[in-house]
# Entry
Amino acid sequence: MPEQDQAHAKAGVRTGLNPLALGTVVYTLDGALPVEYLNDGDRVITRSGARVVRAIEGDAALGFALRFDRPQIVYTENAQVVMA
# Structure
């Protein structure tokens, strides 16, 4: 396992392809919102600070992936998730 993945595992961070399930609460500058309520341009709280969502991919069946200008660790109600 690569060194960065080991560090993420120790910190409780989910890595890899991580679509967020319908209803997953994501922390934003406007408060905690379910992922399906997010839009392009919303500001999401990440380990690097607030970041603008560039795109949201997926749907309720497959899950939602947030896209940023570079990979980010996103804070949700129950986990920290890497969005690449």
Notes: Residues 55 and 64 are 10 Å apart (CA to CA). Strands lie at 13-14, 25-28, 31-34, 43-46, 49-52, 55-59, 63-67, 72-75, 80-83. Residues 3-83 form one domain.
